[in-house]
From TrEMBL:
Keyword entries, A-Z: Cell membrane, Ion transport, Membrane, Sodium, Sodium transport, Transmembrane, Transmembrane helix, Transport
Primary localization class, coarse: membrane
GO cellular component: plasma membrane
Domain of life of the organism encoding this protein: Bacteria
Transmembrane segments: 6-24, 31-50, 70-89, 101-122, 128-149, 170-191, 203-222, 242-268, 288-308, 320-341, 361-380, 392-416
GO MF entry, a single one: potassium:proton antiporter activity
Name the record gives this protein: Sodium:proton antiporter
Start and end residues of each Cyclic nucleotide-binding domain: 708-822
The keyword Lyase is assigned to this record: no
């Protein structure tokens, strides 16, 4: 075929892609629906002109269109890895982990349920073997939620809901394609009735193998990219090779799922890339992948749609009945998950609540697209699949895809409107009025400065200022006197605005490079949690998200166990260093939020709301300072090294600004500027490296700071440091329960605890101990000890504590004082020489 003609056809397809997006926006239908319709029209038109006798002039063009090398391997090996890899790079994985339960339910459980529902429904109503029916079920289980996500975003739907659907779109295709490969093997082997237990047993192997290959490939790629730290194009080129090599490696080398390998590679790069690559290189890499994915997604839709007229040429009347069965079974399976299983998980507090209107929209928004057609094409191309199975699979997959695109896609926005999801809530309407009022105040100040600088006509300025002032006064009055807003709603609005400004401040700091890209994602995730928590639960949601941002998470606790039980310190060292930098970044941001409260929020919501926000902000800052103080105490000197790094990076940013100003003023030429920037880039690369944290706890230094151990010599302090274990606890964690036997004594290195017994409570802080009375008296104490702040405790077992007590006068004095405070006679604990008698008195 003429290469010029093929090139012309492909270039024309890009023109169609360019015109499709504005056309979809004008017609208010999903972009994928327009692409599919255009592809069907092009394919049908090519067949018509090739077979008609009206004219032969367009035959070469029609032949070029129909002769395009559209094969399933092109979709599966070229386009699909691109789409999946970009989806993983564009996700906020830390926020996805908050909703992993509903994402997995919608993606994996729903795929399995839909596959078997469709498969058995077809088996009961058709003459196809069960394996072929299950193959159809796997094919039609691949969803394309991009349409509903796009519409939800345009309607300002909750971010959490859009994030859940995005997570589903990623894992859904991976799970469905893995099942497709499983049942495709049975069909090609001619197995009519497979052993489903064996089939499902192989399913985890496919996933685990693909995940391992993808993880290893991404780790190797990240190492290579880190070696080429100053060569951005080399790093981006490696990222382009990564998904394809992972896909082929998994499929061809170990027979695992290539789709899972691509997803695992993308997730690994998303988690590790920001900390290993320069910020600008990471930004450019993601932007390139967005463009590649846009082209790949559009081309796969159009090229797959070109095949639809040919796939439907042999359709029969009874096929329409089977398509109806597939439609009913697939929609029913999705509805069972969303209206049956998901509410159950919500009641068990394993999933966030998804309101009924949104669940209806998700059911109706489960569009199918090019992936479904590509899998169907793979079946029709296989010579090992019987001809009758090829025909029916192609027709059923195509018919179901057309139904979802044409019927569901064209009516999705109408359904959302009927459900009332396009209307703002009273709180959102109040928030919009607040935004208008605040924006207009800022605009007035900027316009006043502009008119003064340009010395415009005073009468004109006065006239326009009067008009603008009237609009501003009306906006402020509307924001202040809205009857829809209660006082607690004003607090909620103020907190949403505060959290939004915090997010903007973080982005500004990232652009200035005073917050590293490694920490930016975590700090931004915390800010998003503040916004979403406030929108859903008001003030309590804000406080809960704030406490979570400084708490020790499950991953941190797992790293502690790895270090203490297995002697693997590297995860704990990395997470502790991350925690140091995170707390310093949070403190940096929080200290700048007070001016926003006074300058913006006070104008709209008044003094009382502003004072309350100042109080909440002060509590957050205090919690951050407390957590940071504990780390400073445990690792003296490391926080100072991070602060020095921050100062160096700030100085480099200011130096770069001066060079840019000098160049703009013509004081230096391009050659001098390039040389200066090269030197600055080298120094910035050195400043980006974070100092290493020695996780070998400096317990000796820590022990010396305890007044209780003041009279111990250096050798005993070293031995004590080796004997002490470290325990991290979150605020609210119960350390000792009532009536439980106590076998250790706890020393508070940082943080604070609260003791409660018989309705009375008292608190202890840094340098104090608890548990000693229960150990010495050999009986359970009716005291519950709970952490009231993230705390670091040093734990000493009973035997070592007794030996230490007999040697330390300072510790004996502290124990005596504690006993007297609790009404226990010291003579019951010590003899005249100070030695413990409890061991001898105990039965």
């Amino acid at each position: 075929m003429d290469i010029v003609l093929i090139t012309t056809v492909i270039a024309s397809l890009f023109l169609v892609i360019g015109a499709a997006e504005p056309l979809a926006a004008r017609l208010r239908v999903p972009y994928s629906v327009i692409l599919a319709l255009l592809g069907i029209l092009i394919g049908a038109g090519a067949i018509f002109f090739l077979r008609t006798e009206l004219t032969d002039a367009l035959n070469p063009v029609a032949e070029a269109i129909l002769g395009l090398p559209i094969r399933s391997n092109v979709f599966l090996y070229v386009f699909l890895p691109t789409l999946l890899f970009q989806a993983t790079l564009g996700m906020n994985l830390r926020r996805m982990l908050d909703d992993w339960v509903p994402i997995l339910v919608l993606a994996v459980v729903a795929v399995v349920v839909a596959t078997f529902s469709v498969g058995y429904a077809l088996s009961w109503t058709s003459a196809l073997p069960l394996t072929a029916c299950l193959l159809v079920g796997a094919i039609v289980s691949t969803t394309d939620p991009s349409a509903v996500v796009t519409i939800f975003r345009s309607l300002a739907a909750p971010r959490r809901l859009a994030r859940i659907i995005e997570g589903e779109s990623l894992l859904n295709d991976a799970a469905a394609i893995a099942l497709f490969g499983l049942f495709m093997g049975f069909v090609m082997l001619g197995v009519p009735d497979p052993d489903l237990g064996e089939a499902l047993a192989r399913f985890p192997v496919l996933i685990a193998g693909g995940a391992l290959v993808g993880w290893l490939a991404a780790r190797l790629a990240v190492r290579l990219m880190a070696l080429f730290n100053r060569h951005e194009l080399a790093q981006i080129s490696i990222s382009v090779a990564l998904p394809y090599l992972a896909y082929i490696g998994a499929e061809q080398s170990i027979g695992a799922s290539g789709v899972i390998a691509v997803v695992a590679a993308g997730l690994t790069l998303n988690l590790t890339g920001p900390g290993r690559l320069p910020p600008q290189a990471w930004t450019n890499l993601r932007e390139l992948w967005e463009v590649l994915a846009h082209w790949a997604g559009a081309l796969i839709f159009i090229l797959a749609a070109l095949l639809i007229p040919r796939l439907l040429e042999s359709v029969r009347l009874e096929d329409f009945l089977l398509v109806g069965v597939v439609i009913l079974a697939a929609i029913s399976a999705r509805a069972v998950i969303l209206f049956g299983l998901l509410p159950l998980l919500t009641r068990l507090k394993l999933s966030p609540a998804v309101e009924r209107p949104y669940r209806v929209a998700i059911v109706w928004g489960g569009l199918r697209g090019a992936v479904t057609l590509a899998l169907a094409l793979a079946v029709t191309e296989s010579f090992r699949v019987p001809d009758d199975v090829q025909r029916v699979v192609g027709i059923l997959a195509t018919g179901f895809t057309l139904f979802t695109l044409i019927v569901q896609g064209s009516t999705l926005r109408w359904v959302i409107t009927r459900l009332g999801l396009d209307r703002l809530s009273p709180l959102d309407e109040a928030l919009s009025r607040q935004v208008v009022a605040v924006a207009l105040q800022t605009v007035r100040e900027d316009v006043a400065r502009t008119t003064e600088n340009y010395e415009l006509n005073r009468d004109t300025v006065r006239s326009e200022a009067k008009r603008f002032g009237e609009r501003l006064e009306a906006a402020v009055k509307s924001a202040e006197e809205s009857e829809d807003i209660l006082d607690r709603d004003r607090v909620t609005l103020g907190l949403i605005a505060l959290a939004g400004h915090e997010r903007d401040a973080i982005l500004a700091r990232v652009r200035e490079r005073t917050i590293s890209a490694r920490m930016a994602e975590q700090v931004l995730s915390d800010a998003d949690r503040l916004i979403e928590g406030t929108r859903s639960q008001g003030r309590s949601g804000y406080q809960r998200a704030a406490r979570r941002s400084v708490a020790y998470g499950r991953v941190f606790r797992a790293a502690v166990l790895l270090n203490s039980r297995l002697g693997i310190p590297h995860p704990l060292a990395r997470l502790t260093a991350d925690r140091f930098e995170l707390l310093l970044s949070q403190r940096l941001i929080l200290r700048d939020l007070g001016t926003f409260i006074d300058g913006r929020i006070r104008r709209i919501h008044g003094r009382r709301v502003a004072e309350l926000l100042h109080e909440l902000l002060a509590r957050r800052l205090e919690a951050v300072e407390t957590a940071l103080k504990g780390l400073r105490l445990q690792y003296p000197g490391y926080a100072e090294e991070l602060e020095r790094r921050f100062i160096r990076r700030t100085a480099l940013r200011l130096e770069e600004r001066e060079y840019n100003m000098m160049r703009e003023d013509g004081l230096i030429g391009a050659e001098v500027y390039t040389a200066l920037m090269q030197d600055l880039t080298a120094r910035r690369a050195a400043a980006e490296d974070r100092p290493r944290l020695d996780i070998a706890l400096q317990r000796a230094e820590l022990v010396r700071q305890f007044p209780l151990f003041a009279d111990l010599d250096a050798a005993r302090i070293r031995r004590l440091g080796r004997a002490l274990d470290t325990r991290y606890v979150n605020a609210g964690d119960v350390i000792l329960q009532k009536d439980s036997p106590v076998r250790s004594v706890f020393f508070i290195a940082s943080g604070a605890v609260e003791l409660e017994t018989a309705g009375q409570t008292w608190r202890m802080g840094r340098g104090e101990m608890f548990g000693q009375m229960a150990v010495l008296m050999r009986r359970p104490r009716r005291v519950e000890v709970r952490a009231i702040a993230p705390s670091t405790l040093l734990v000493l077992d009973e035997a070592r504590f007794r030996r230490l007590l007999n040697r330390s006068k300072a510790l004996q004095k502290a124990v005596r004082a504690s006993a007297e405070k609790r009404g226990i006679a010291p003579d019951d604990l010590f003899d005249g020489t100070g030695d413990s008698l409890v061991a001898e008195k105990a039965p």
